[in-house]
User: Fold this.
Amino acid sequence: MTIDRTSWESHYQSGNTPWDSRITPPEVQAFWAAARLPTAGLAIDVGCGPGTNATYLARLGLTVIGTDLAGTALNLARRRLQEQSVDVRDRISFVQSDVTRLPFSGANADYMLDIGCFHGLPPQLRDSYAQGIINNLRPGGYYQLYAFDCLEDLTDDPKRKQRGLRETEVAERFGPELALIEVIRAKPDRYPCRWYLLQKR
Assistant:
């Protein structure tokens, strides 16, 4: 089973991208303000879209790989990147890929970020996604995840019945390799949602 790329390309081609705020979430900014990691090393933004957060990370001083399934999103990211300084542009690479089949392993990333990919995957693809995170994060590295909760009242909607995460799912999918160290109930978007912070043992 693979993810359907067509619908994501259509979103970006039509401009129907309500998630594209061009603002890095305060939770990501707070993570870096807490100085849990030096602002160097490698960061991977999984499902980077038009590159807002990848660019933020590169401006901090990190080397960044942004991945996305939609080539249209990455083309937009590359255009926006031209607005940045040369040193920021030189620290970012964009790669088109399915988040459940990352085209690299053993990247030894210090930090990996997912804002809204994992919660939309069909359950049968979630273990392969989790393995990609585990395989590419260095010991002591952090994985920060934003995801909708799984809501019973959406189960009758065929487009949303598999969306969201059960309360214990993050710990189950990523343990024992990654320790769940923080969960923040986020200000609801359209649905209840949370920020998760995990660290590789």
Notes: The CA atoms of residues 59 and 88 lie 6 Å apart.
